[in-house]
Amino acid sequence: MSRALNELRPVYVAGAGLDRYRRISERSYVEFGLIAIRAALADAGIQWRDVESFYLGTALLGMAPGRTMIKHLGATGTSIAQVENASASGSTSFRQACLDVASGVADVSMAAGVDKPARMQRASDGSAGDLVGRALPPVAHFALLANQYCTAHGVTTGQMAAVAVKNHGNGAMNPYAHRQKARTLEEVLAPPFIAGPLTRLQCCPVGEGAAAVIVASEDAIERLGIDPGRCIRVLASVSRSERVYAPDADGDVELTRETVAMAYAQSGIEPGELDVVELHDAFSIEEIMYAEAMGLSGRGEAARDIVAGDFDIGGRCAISASGGLLAMGHPIGPTGTGQIVEITRQLRGEAGDRQQPDATTGLAHMVGVGAVCLVHILQRT
């Protein structure tokens, strides 16, 4: 019989590190990947030799990039594995680290994410193995969903764009964000339009970056002298793939609804108990749809709740306090791991100007090419 994370031994995030997400540069991924990894080690106060397993989430770097990177930390015999799961690569690497520690396979595991998109156009031939080439481009897909949702629920383009206004404002307070400029509603609504009602500032930037977290058991926290007061408990980890849904249903939304419901059941947490949420807001309409799927808003009500400030920092639940994918950025491989970094800092009370007051419980959500969904719930105990 399968067992959930909460039925195994407790798991904690003990260290977190980032390199700023940014436009593609001349830097090697090895350079900025090591910055994030070393930052996570320093944050936990441990050494590389203490890490027993290492999972690297990456979607764009090809074969075995982790080996090239971590050799600079020393040859310690650490177990290494690369994880590719599209936008959910970093979230999946975090889940694998949690499972290692929860099962007792390791006392200390590291989940990292790093990516650097190629400057040249990537091959896309529409063959059976070319999922992206055969699919409707994501921006077009979500533009169609935006039109459908706004028509069905009487939501204006201005209300939808308020998502981007909020998240760009949050990103302006985040030194690790790709976009660090607050935007007015007029700026967000200004051309160019990328697809349908989605303007450039309502679409996430894809650049380079890195994130890393240390996952540890209670035994390791005590043995290594890690400060238990800064360790954040992982209450739930759920990974699902799509099913066959009704013809009029959106697969991303239904998959999110199912996965989040399982995470709530696993953790014993209800929607109203969430203080911070980091979700897959690659396009502004996604935050609206996923907030409803998570039970944070009623059906057709999320856009109005956003305009009312319910999901602002200081509101009833801060959504995308990091700036989200829209402003923090979406370098693919590290995105999901970076969400865990943000939630960890929020629950520690270390988020600076972005701090959600009295935050104790957070949820991280990522989808990958619409086919997979990862949800984690964390809590300060």
Which fold does the CATH topology of the largest domain refer to? Peroxisomal Thiolase, Chain A, domain 1
Architecture per CATH nomenclature, i.e. the level-2 architecture of the largest domain: 3-Layer(aba) Sandwich
What percentage of residues falls in helices of 4 or more residues?
25-40%
Distance between the termini: 29 Å
CATH class of the largest domain: Alpha Beta
Uncertain runs = 120-124, 126-134
| Count of extended strands | 12
Name of the CATH homologous superfamily of the largest domain: Thiolase/Chalcone synthase
- Element-level helix/strand string: EHEHEHEHHHHEEEHEHEHHEHHEE
Looking at the structure, what is the overall shape? Answer: globular
Oligomer: single chain
Kindly provide the radius of gyration, computed on alpha-carbon positions and rounded to a whole number of angstroms. Answer: 19 Å
Largest sheet: 10 strands, mixed
